[in-house]
Amino acid sequence: MTFCPAAITTAALFTAIVLIDLAKGKYRYIPFHALGGFFCVLGLNFICQSVGDAAAWILLSIPFLFILLGLFLIWWSGPVIVAAVQQADSCEDAQPSCQPTPPACTPTAPPPTLPASVTNVPLSTSISTIGCRKTT
Questions:
Q1: What is the reported pTM?
Q2: How far, in Å, CA of 31 to CA of 29, rounded?
Q3: How confident is the prediction along the chain (136 residues), in pLDDT tens digits per residue?
């Protein structure tokens, strides 16, 4: 069985994805990327042999076109994002909508203790927040 160039390119791309997963330590993604790559390579090879090389290359180029479109949109909207961040950083410049962060919840009384007879309390239960009020 011979593989067409589009299928070989797909195999190389998915091999790179699996190697990146290995390098980053994301081991739970490796089986999905490996199986997905296997089926994509087989599918592209089938399309290449039944329809032709051009159809396989067009199908392979569709994700790259969407990636390029996304990068272009990020580049195009970049100055707006930077301006919004710079405006948010200048909170001291007498902007009435900018308020300092409210202080954290301060306890009004010592946290209550549970009787010894209480069992099966979920781990998410937090006693330290009971009796808290926000200070203004």
A1: 0.51
A2: 6
A3: 788 999 999 999 999 999 999 999 999 999 999 999 999 999 999 999 999 999 999 999 998 899 999 889 888 887 655 555 555 555 555 555 555 555 555 556 666 676 666 565 555 555 555 555 555 5
